[in-house]
Design goal:
345 residues, alpha/beta, Spore Coat Polysaccharide Biosynthesis Protein SpsA, Chain A, nine-stranded mixed beta sheet, three-stranded mixed beta sheet, 14 strands, globular
Amino acid sequence: MLSDIAIVILNYNGREYLELFLPKVIAYSEDARIIIADNHSIDDSVAFVKTNFPTIEVIINSQNGGFAQGYNEALSKIQSKFYLLLNSDIEVTKDWLVPLFNSMKDPNVAGCQPKILSYHNKNVFEHAGASGGFLDRNYYPFCRGRIFDLTEIDSGQYDNEQEIFWASGACLLIRSELFHLVEGFDEDFFAHMEEIDMCWRIKKRGFNFKVIPSSVVYHVGGGTLAYNSPKKTYLNFRNSLFMITKNHEGVLFFKIFYRLCLDGIAGVLFLFKGSPTHTISVLKAHFDFYKYLVIMLRKRTELKNQMDRQINLSGVYEGSILWARYFKGIMKYSELNLRLFKTKR
């Protein structure tokens, strides 16, 4: 039943998005429970919701601890079989919940996401999730419908349900039991890539994630932090190193060293493109990674000790997405060699 779902919208100074998008969430979510988790906003978001939507539950977090801590704190107070994590800058569509809920009838499915299109250009995939997320052999994330900064026009080419490696935190339906089993998001990430890290940790227990394109939502994107923000660059580069350190199954040193070299090349390219602030962000990400290295290595050991099932590697691309994009000129997911995608082992 849809009443088993708690839709939790994490909000920080997002009154304009709540005013624009919350009415459709209410109208199209039938019996699901709807909760605003406010991340200690300093605008009038909470007052607006309480005045205009008095039946909506509001949880006020103790501080703005970012996406990771914000959801962890809020979800620790919510009893529900399923959590539907929903960005405040998303427009939902009629019957969006039913296909997502139906996919969870398979007990091996830990979570799923809808097809995510751009709110401002509704026939184009949105950067954050598109039609399902994957990792390449060097752990660069990409999606059906988005490779790096290139997003495709949606012509129905990715409308089949498919197992994926990670589901977007912008709109993620997940079993509450599994969310709490792996202790939710890693709060050291603050924001960005924390959902990939969490999906990876859940897949280490043998579960899988799916994309359900018959469910469609539209995402503004960059509503809290613009895609071209140096802070976003910093978080993405730092958190990628966090994620690899924690989760890589093989010899860690060579994988991290290789990624550090690739990051260094990216920093130089930012400089040549006239974006020195992004080069500084990459350098800062590396220095802060070293500060956290002992902590991440400790978490790596803890994860190894917790593994009780064989990891599900379905959704890993054994090729290099960097090589495919910048050396072979591949601009679309459909142009990749699909034989290089791992399946369950």
